[in-house]
Amino acid sequence: MDELAKKKQSEKKIMKKMSVVLSNCEKSVLAQLSCFCFLCVALVGLFFHLAMPPKVQITACDVGQGDAVLIQYGQSFVLIDTGPNSDILRCLQRNIFFLDPTIDLVILTHPDKDHIGGWESVVERYRISELATNGQSANPDHSSVSQTAETGAFVWWPGVIGRVVWSADSFAALHTSGESQEETNAQSVGTYWWGESFGFLSLGDLECEQELAVAGSGLLNRVSLLKVSHHGSKSSSCLEFLQKIDTETAFISVGEKNSYNHPEENVIFSLEKAGAVVYRTDIQGEITYQSHISGGWLVEYENGKE
């Protein structure tokens, strides 16, 4: 769906909700005044919601010890993982317009609780157009829109392309000698998003062996932003991989004072040695990267956490 059609569809949904509010207004002066104030706020929000120029916004949600990344382009949203619990809702409510609670695509990289624990909270409050998983049975059921991610699959937006660069079938191809198919981290769904001025790589909880396979797959272009795999575990983000992708900026989604001691000091050292500027949700809180199609990242994060 192109951006103009998306805006028109969004506008119809919002106007329908506003008409419901109007029909429920009582005839008392106080109720009418409340409705009037609500509609004024909604119309102002609608104006800015629909008038904003298309931009790529990538938000590392602060969900504690877990992963949740929200990608926005214009009026379209992709959510990669949901964190361990309902804390994800704070991030979604801050970034998705409340009169149009739709997420176009949810990607659940693998069925560990710190990646899918917030799923029920999300699906209760947001319309999910599509769901992609790694196909393992522990993933939440939403069968009407669910599909198993396959390496090479594309998501198209005007000016932005998303591509699956690692999935369970990649793991099977790499491990042909019969290693355990129960390994969840190594079968995480990995995705790469790029446009004219940026490239974002998110590889779930993949470890160094799989990361190197992705780096050598020929599926990546420029990587200007990296979600550090497995919360900065020592099993991921080896220096060889980081030097191959040559990322400029990286963020670690990690809980404050977590029991795993994530991120590992050697991972921070490797990131810095590879030339990456590093941000962390346990220090900066929610981190937002904005990339206008004309170029450049603008990085913002929550106040009072650094």
What does this structure look like?
By secondary structure, the chain is α/β, with parallel strands linked by helices. The chain folds into 2 domains: 3-51; 55-301, 4-Layer Sandwich (Metallo-beta-lactamase, Chain A), CATH 3.60.15. It is 32% helix and 25% strand. The chain has helices at 3-24, 29-51, 88-95, 113-116, 119-125, 168-174, 208-215, 239-245, 265-273, 281-284, and strands at residues 55-60, 69-73, 76-80, 102-108, 127-133, 146-148, 154-157, 160-166, 190-195, 199-202, 225-227, 249-252, 277-280, 287-292, 297-301. The strands form 2 sheets. It has an 8-stranded mixed sheet with strand order 6-5-4-3-2-1-14-15, covered by helices on one side. It has a 7-stranded mixed sheet with strand order 7-8-9-10-11-12-13. Helix 7 (208-215) packs parallel to helix 8 (239-245). The protein is globular. The two termini are 40 Å apart. The mean pLDDT is 83.
How is this structure best summarized?
This protein has helices at residues 3-24, 29-51, 88-95, 113-116, 119-125, 168-174, 208-215, 239-245, 265-273, 281-284; strands at residues 55-60, 69-73, 76-80, 102-108, 127-133, 146-148, 154-157, 160-166, 190-195, 199-202, 225-227, 249-252, 277-280, 287-292, 297-301. With 306 residues, it is of the alpha/beta class.
Outline the secondary-structure elements.
Layout: H1 3-24, H2 29-51, E1 55-60, E2 69-73, E3 76-80, H3 88-95, E4 102-108, H4 113-116, H5 119-125, E5 127-133, E6 146-148, E7 154-157, E8 160-166, H6 168-174, E9 190-195, E10 199-202, H7 208-215, E11 225-227, H8 239-245, E12 249-252, H9 265-273, E13 277-280, H10 281-284, E14 287-292, E15 297-301
Parallel strand pairs: 3-4, 4-5, 5-6, 10-11, 11-12, 12-13
Antiparallel strand pairs: 1-2, 1-14, 2-3, 7-8, 8-9, 9-10, 14-15
Helix pairs in contact: 1-2, 7-8
